[in-house]
Every structure is written in C-alpha cells, then in structure tokens.
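Lab notebook: predicted structure, single chain.

Context: the supervisor wants predicted structures on file for every construct in the current expression panel, including those that have not yet been purified. This is the next one on the list. No modifications to the sequence; it matches the entry in the shared construct table.
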Amino acid sequence: MNAATNHTSATISADELRDKFSSKFPKHGYKCGTWHFDAERLTLDYKPNGRWQYEIDLERCATGAQLSDWIFQVLGRCSAQDMFDLLRALNTLLRPQANHCSCGINKRIPDVKKFFADRMEGVQ
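Prediction complete. Output recorded below exactly as produced.
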C-alpha cells in the first residue's frame, strides 16, 4: 500500500480551524521575559529585576518607521536576550509583518486604540 494513499479524511469547520491555529491575544499583564504588557495604558514596560526602567507607548507604533524607532531607541539599554524578548512581544501584540510592512510595503495601523480594543474583545 502506498503511504500517500494511507490516510483518513476528516473535515474541520472554519471556526475549529481558526481556534486551532490562531493564538489568543494576550491579556493585561502578559509577560515576555522582562517586558510587561499594560493593556490599560497600551504600553510595553521594560522591568528587569521586577523594577520599571523603560516603556514603549504602543499608540506611537502605528507605522513601520515608528516601530523601528522604538526598537533602536531601546537597543543600547538592554541585553541581547531582552531585545529578543522585545521583538517577540512586539510581534505578538502588533503583528508587524501583517500590519506594518507586508512584502516590504510600509503600512499603517489607522487607529491603534481601536486595533487593540478589537483584538482584546473577549479576552479575559
């Protein structure tokens, strides 16, 4: 019997597919290493050793240029691991590949507050 023909067929609904492969949006207090998401103020706070040191105002991350500016402002202020965690947190929260620079084309999130409100709807 051919391995290619030895499979079972199953159907999955669009809702089941979405639930299976879409990640849930982080809630207030989400942590990525030393970075903490404040959903009430829409900031990403840098808290090494549990002490606040720096914050990124996510409302000022509407364009790829603004996002890059924040990344390079922080670059000299933290370790390589903390930078990696920052990039992971920004990717989780803002999805820059889809919302800022798909295919090298600069994009803009028109209303960052609404962007977060829509994504946080139903997050507990």
